[in-house]
Write a structure and sequence with these properties.
By secondary structure, the protein is α/β, with parallel strands linked by helices. Helix content is about 45%, strand content about 15%. Strands 2-3-1-4-5 form a 5-stranded parallel β-sheet, with helices on both faces. A two-stranded antiparallel ribbon has the order 6-7.
Length: about 280
């Protein structure tokens, strides 16, 4: 389940490093699988990186495969450019949602070094000088202080890496807690959703009926709570329904279990969110 995100300039040796890491993990009793971005490309890599649309599609396929493979009991090595920090953050969120650990491995070579390596490759493996330059210019290097890039391991030109440290971070460290909004919240009261909808709808109905009889500035009382709402203006059905939907989402995400407080909370929510 642990995830290793490879990143670095084009021709920085990411695929070579990924294979060495896979071998090291296997030798130490940890099964590892390499997920190669290049294998997901339907055409030449230069043509892929020359088109932002095609490149985005490839990144989408890579992310989908990472999420699919995170369910398996093995280390996933995501071998790709991964040069956009926003994309690395998305992978971090995916591993976080799967309640697994993750590390970032940065193949930290200079631009002259990758240009030299690229020039010695076979023609069918080379990046064009234009694509290589463009990708290097667009590259967003990982920073260890960013939670989605941490823990960060460096691999320099000599190719040496801290395999023991990687295994320790992935297998002896607790994964970060998932975001609250990505989790299905357990509801101890099976009647919760029914009561949530019923109580909020009763309050909306009371407001609409009261507006027919009361003037601006008057207080509305509710049978389900001691909270009151002052009519600062006339509220439409559509905005009350919209605010109700927002509150229901809010209540579900926070797993509010005290059903008796729902009506009071909704009136408070209306006071805070209805624009006067």
């Amino acid at each position: 389940m642990p995830l290793i995100i490879m990143t670095g300039f084009p021709s920085a040796g990411k695929s070579t490093a990924a294979k060495k890491i896979q071998q090291y993990f296997t030798e130490h009793g940890k099964e590892a699988e390499i997920l190669s971005e290049e294998n997901l490309m339907s055409g030449d890599k230069n043509s892929v990186f020359a088109s932002s649309t095609i490149e985005k599609e490839v990144r989408g396929r890579l992310k989908s495969e990472v999420i699919r493979l995170l369910d398996k009991e093995k280390t996933i090595i995501c071998d790709g450019a991964n040069y956009i920090k926003g994309f690395r953050y998305e992978l971090y969120c995916a591993s976080k949602a799967s309640k697994t650990t993750q590390i970032t491995v940065f193949c930290d070579l200079s631009v002259p070094d990758v240009q030299d390596i690229n020039s010695k490759r076979d023609d069918n493996q080379k990046y064009t000088s234009e694509i290589l330059t463009a990708l290097c210019q667009r590259y967003e290097a990982p920073i260890s202080s960013n939670r989605w890039d941490s823990p960060l391991f460096l691999i320099l030109k000599d190719g040496e890496f801290d395999g023991a440290g990687m295994i320790k971070c992935l297998y002896e460290r607790a994964p970060p807690p998932p975001n609250q909004s990505t989790q299905t919240q357990p509801l101890s009261n099976t009647d919760f959703l029914y009561q949530l909808d019923k109580q909020t709808q009763d309050i909306v109905t009371t407001i609409l009926e009261a507006q027919k009889l009361s003037g601006i500035g008057e207080e509305i009382s509710f049978s389900s709570t001691q909270e009151k709402l002052v009519l600062s203006r006339t509220y439409t059905l559509s905005e009350l329904a919209r605010t109700k939907r927002q509150f229901i989402k809010y209540a579900k995400e926070r797993a509010i279990q005290d059903v008796e407080k729902l009506a009071s909370m909704f009136v408070q929510y209306l006071r805070s969110n209805l624009i006067a």
